[in-house]
Amino acid sequence: MKTVVNLLLLLLCCTISFAAPQYEAWWQQANKHYEQKNYDSAAYYYEQVAALKPADAVVYYNLGNAYYKLNQVGPAVLNYERALATQPGYKEAQDNLSLAQSRIINRIATTQDIFFVKWWKSWTSGSNATTWAVISLVLFVALIGYAIARRMHFISFRLPIQATGIGWVICTCCIILAFIAAANRADGGKAVVMQNDTPLYTTPSPAKSTASVPEGTTVHCSKEQQGWIEVTLPDGRTGWMRTDGLSKI
Fold first, then answer.
1. Are 62 and 30 in contact (CB under 8 A)?
2. pTM: predicted TM-score of the whole model, two decimal places
3. What superfamily would CATH give domain 190-248?
4. Which of 31, 133, 198, 207 is the most exposed place for a label (fewest CB within 10 A)?
5. Are 230 and 238 in contact, with CB atoms under 8 Å apart?
6. Domains of the chain, residue spans
7. What is the pLDDT of residues 77-103, one digit of tens each?
């Protein structure tokens, strides 16, 4: 058993030592080709870099730029979306995503939510799960710490009972929001349509399609079964699409 563990550790060290210089070489090649306007070669090397380092928003951003220059709307939107999923406040990626989406032929208009629906979606976004969890943990520890300190007579001041009650209510609300945001993070997430005029069906079967969805459209995913996935379009319509026509963000 010890021998197997040692071999695995050796293999891991070799992989890391190989990947580091390989990553740097591919990164330099990608940037060089992009500067020389060889965008297809740049996209190839950025893809290799993204495979080695899949949580780097800058890599996805540069990859999106390369595809944008190649006028490949689907891959461009996909990688800008991945950059924003990795780093939600990435302004350059958001700006370029808007530019890429403006190239979508027959683009589906996004339904505008009422202001309080927007707030709720923002608060319960999967990217906020950790924030709500940390806030609820800090409040819980502070309230428990205060109660213990009072019981052990470590502190002499006493907070109004209304203040502690409000603290527990806020803590409970933060826990609920953390669970909802975590559930939203764990759901099917979002995907980008990678083929133009991808058919949308009412059921997971190749019957008559109800709509043709243009390449580059970002959809919300829910259920998935046997090569089909249920999606919600930007205008709120729902239906089923083949998984091979989508790339998940």
1. yes
2. 0.72
3. SH3 Domains (2.30.30.40)
4. 207
5. yes
6. 2-101, 115-186, 190-248
7. 999 999 998 888 899 999 999 999 999
